[in-house]
Amino acid sequence: MLHQIVKHWISPSEEGDHGFVEKPNLSQLVVVSYSPFERFPVDLAGRELQDKESYRYFGLRGRTKPSDAKKLGRITLSHYFPKRNAARSLVQCLADDQRLRSIRDWSRKVATMESVLRTAMAFDFAAVEVGPRKRRESFYHDVEDIDPLAVDVGDGEDRRRYIPIASDRVVELDNERLSATLEATSGVTFFLDGQPIELSSGQRLFAYIVINILGAIRRNSLILVDEPELFLHPTLEIQFVEMLKMILSRFNSKALLATHSVVTVREVPSHCVHVFENTEDDIILRHPPFQTFGGDFQRISSYVFGDKSVSKPFEDWIRAQLEELGSAEALITELGDQINEELIVQIKATERGQW
Q1: Which of 25, 71, 164, 194 is the most buried (most CB within 10 A)?
Q2: Is residue 249 part of a domain?
């Protein structure tokens, strides 16, 4: 479904059985997918759409630089694309904040990035790399009371220079100078106590997603996210959904998430949950008949993902133990302090044939 939405958005002149019933009130479509197997278009190269920012893709795929200026680069898979996108998106957050800061109730993108990411990791500021020989002062309009202007890591030929992009220096930074000299393939680096910090793969992916969405989003956008739970710790899944709720409301935008995560489903109300059921005749779309927001994990898993029809190893183990010990009470006594209330209920229900 997400692929059909994208196809119809970037090729509106094509006729077919699938697409929008009527043109939606959207200014932009943003796709976030970090699965190595997806096949979303990576850009609008070769398309007729005049607004090249009306479709944005963030993932593990991208287009290489062509050897011939008249040809398009080939699309390939690389971990450098997420780094490059995140660095450029962070500079875009800075540019948007500078351009629109006088608007009342403007959602400050750099400050939002900091507040969201600090729920997942401790850091003082985010920074991007520039050439080591670039003058620190050249990246600022005003250097008064700004410290540090830059952070150097390493010595000699290995020295690398980073310019902090933080909410307390939005006005002073020169975003055009940063864009022109950005070492984008270095990505975004986070510093704590003057030193770069090492991120887990989940933290890094979370940072990429947050920064890219913030950098790309504008009013009336539709964000398509394919399996956001990939590589994310359950806590980061929750933070991601909370971030989306906050950002979408501020930009009058919406999001569609394709997910197999109970954690994600539990963070949204049932009228926002659409369950796809493949029948013999057609695909049926329905809402859960109970409230999913803050709901019971087992109930959500059984109804939304249909796992009740799949026998689980621990259920087979319970049946085997009941057969060996003769009764539910005997099994409960045997387990002693290792058992919880939910398992007691399941053991008794299994004995009665009600599980």
Answers
A1: 164
A2: no
